[in-house]
């Protein structure tokens, strides 16, 4: 059963306790949303949206949204809001810039927690509650 209906907006919230701020780390690749959420160096959350029916020829850099940096060694709440028109990333209630974000959502059909698609980007720390809901 899909987490979010195809072509729906969604809201993803996750509690994150990062312990390493020196490298990129995956947090979650969310089933049926076309979203990868990761941390850049310095603990800046970055949401990457996959759009286009042919994902092989689509570059993720075109569809990314960043939020305010997380605090190392503390619990942080990260929230990604996507309404089929725009996307925004929040850290502990503080929103980052709103970015236009629309197109054919590519549904990857799997979910990964604590990692990204690259083998060297495992999450260092603890992950708490994850919530994904249609919007």
Description:
There is one protein chain. By secondary structure, the protein is an all-beta fold. The protein has one domain (10-134): Sandwich (Jelly Rolls). Helix content is 0%, strand content 44%. The chain is built from no helices and eleven strands. It has strands at residues 10-18, 25-30, 35-40, 44-49, 64-66, 76-82, 86-91, 94-95, 99-100, 112-113, 125-134. The strands form two sheets. Strands 1, 6, 7, 8, 9 and 11 form a six-stranded antiparallel sheet that branches. A five-stranded antiparallel sheet has the order 5-4-3-2-10, with no helix packed on it. The two termini are 17 Å apart. The mean pLDDT is 82.
**What is the CATH fold-level name?**
Jelly Rolls
Instruction: Kindly give the count of domains.
Output: 1
Give the helix/strand class. mainly beta
Average pLDDT metric: 82
N- to C-terminal separation?
A: 17 Å
Which strand-content bin applies to the residues?
35-45%
Helix residue percentage: under 10%
Q: State the shape.
A: globular
Number of DSSP helical runs: 0
Main sheet summary: 6 strands, antiparallel
Write a compact overview of the structure shown.
0% of the residues lie in helices and 44% in strands.
Layout of helices and strands, plus pairs?
Layout: E1 10-18, E2 25-30, E3 35-40, E4 44-49, E5 64-66, E6 76-82, E7 86-91, E8 94-95, E9 99-100, E10 112-113, E11 125-134
Antiparallel strand pairs: 1-6, 1-11, 2-3, 2-10, 3-4, 4-5, 6-7, 7-8, 7-9
Key descriptive features of the protein:
135 residues; mainly beta; Jelly Rolls; 6-stranded antiparallel beta sheet; 5-stranded antiparallel beta sheet; 0% helix
């Amino acid at each position: 059963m899909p987490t979010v209906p195809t072509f729906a907006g969604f809201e993803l919230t996750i509690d994150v306790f990062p312990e390493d701020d020196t490298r990129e780390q995956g947090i979650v690749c969310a089933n049926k949303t076309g979203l990868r959420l990761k941390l850049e160096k310095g603990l800046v959350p970055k949401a990457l949206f996959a759009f286009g029916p042919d994902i092989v020829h689509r570059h993720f850099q075109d569809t990314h949204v960043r939020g305010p940096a997380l605090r190392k060694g503390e619990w942080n709440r990260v929230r990604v809001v996507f309404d089929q028109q725009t996307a925004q990333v929040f850290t502990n209630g503080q929103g980052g810039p709103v970015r236009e974000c629309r197109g054919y959502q590519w549904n990857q059909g799997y979910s990964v927690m604590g990692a990204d698609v690259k083998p060297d980007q495992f999450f260092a720390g603890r992950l708490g509650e994850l919530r994904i809901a249609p919007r």
